[in-house]
Design brief:
Elements: H1 3-19, E1 26-32, E2 38-39, E3 43-45, E4 50-56, E5 63-68, E6 74-79, E7 86-89, E8 92-95, E9 100-104, E10 110-114, E11 120-126, E12 131-136, E13 142-146, E14 152-156, E15 162-167, E16 172-177, E17 182-187, E18 192-198, E19 204-211, E20 216-223, E21 226-231, E22 237-242, E23 247-253, E24 258-263, E25 267-275, E26 278-286, E27 294-297, E28 302-307, E29 332-337
Antiparallel strand pairs: 1-29, 2-4, 3-4, 4-5, 5-6, 7-8, 8-9, 9-10, 11-12, 12-13, 13-14, 15-16, 16-17, 17-18, 19-20, 20-21, 21-22, 23-24, 24-25, 25-26, 27-28, 28-29
């Protein structure tokens, strides 16, 4: 995040907070847990009541931090793991690191590491056949792992950079292709690319959520700032709705028929699905700057996001971006709910 972007984000966030729609959602807690290292995705294991946050950095910093999902008390660090995200399937946890780490989801005891190619980023657990998909912006784009054994079953190239994925639990995995204005459709049984859903350009999309029952995809795009809502059956865009700047995650809660997108500009957009053909921005919640990824606790219906406080950015070198430094021990977990 450059100093220019930070200034713009602060301005946008102030504006967003001023115009945020009233509604049932609000920040329930904002807990500083501190700790060194950057971050990317956050993952709630609702069944085992654990919250996973990979922290990235130097070798002595990279780890997966684990918190109690109810109290947010620190449980344990899984050291020398890091990566960008976590998924839990078949009683095992996996990190999108290189190598991928595998552990027992109840005890958190390590099981093994799994060698993979590419540059692991996002990760998805698919309940259809207990497989884990490790996403990479470089080939191979998808590495498929048996969640029961930790064996690599194969790889799939989708012709572009995958950002986030969603499963319908019935044999199809959908993958946002960030740089190709498209969503890849994966045949989970055959483990191959079955087709693509083309999006109206430009569609630099990151977050992807799915209403599996009604076959509706919610694709959170960065430029332009919109939620592109797509019918799986027809592959056609149903509607496009405005969101904030810098989305990097989306989730859908079937219990409330709502899609959520977090943005780095300090906004959380909530979209209500009134029917499979009728959608509206229900509420915009003001959140801390930088809270751009999220997870859903399916037990409580709470949305959890993460960020930190930042200091002034140093002067940028020619041809380089200048990122503002994290202020030590300000890393925080934000819980949003009714």
């Amino acid at each position: 995040m450059s100093s220019k972007f930070l200034a713009v984000a602060l301005c946008v966030a102030a504006s967003a907070a001023a115009v945020a729609q009233s509604g049932p959602y609000k920040i329930l807690s904002d807990t500083k847990v501190g700790g060194a290292g950057g971050w990317d995705y956050i993952y709630a294991d609702s069944a085992n009541r654990k919250l996973y946050i990979p922290r990235m950095g130097a070798a002595d910093v990279s780890r997966v931090t684990v918190y109690d999902l109810d109290s947010l008390a620190h449980i344990k660090d899984i050291p020398e793991t890091g990566g960008h995200g976590v998924a839990v399937a078949a009683g095992h946890g996996f990190s999108s690191s290189k190598p991928v780490a595998m552990w027992d989801a109840k005890t958190l005891n390590p099981i093994k590491t799994i060698d993979v190619d590419g540059r692991p980023d996002g990760i998805l657990a698919d309940s259809f056949n207990d497989r884990v998909y490790v996403l990479s912006h470089v080939s191979p784009n998808l590495t498929v792992i048996d969640a029961k054994t930790g064996d690599v079953l194969g790889t799939i190239d989708i012709g572009g950079a995958p950002e986030e994925a969603a499963s319908d639990g019935a044999g199809h995995v959908y993958v946002d292709i960030e740089d190709k204005d498209a969503i890849a459709v994966i045949d989970a049984k055959a483990m191959k690319l079955a087709g693509k859903i083309e999006l109206p350009p430009p569609s630099s999309c990151a977050g992807l959520a799915l209403d599996a029952k009604n076959g509706v995809l919610f694709d959170a795009c960065r430029e332009p700032q919109r939620m592109t809502i797509v019918s799986v059956a027809s592959g056609k865009v149903i509607t496009k709705l405005p969101i904030g700047r810098g989305s990097d995650g989306a989730v859908f809660n079937p219990a409330t028929m709502e899609a959520f997108s977090t943005q780095g500009d300090g906004t959380l957009t909530i979209i209500k699905e009134n029917s499979p053909s009728s959608f509206a921005v229900e509420q915009t919640v003001a959140t801390p700057i930088g809270a751009r990824t999220l997870t859903l606790d399916t037990k409580t219906g709470h949305i959890l996001t993460i960020t930190s406080e930042f200091g002034p950015a140093p002067a940028a070198q020619p041809g380089q971006r200048s990122r503002p430094p994290m202020i030590p021990d300000t890393f925080q977990i934000v819980v949003v709910g009714k």
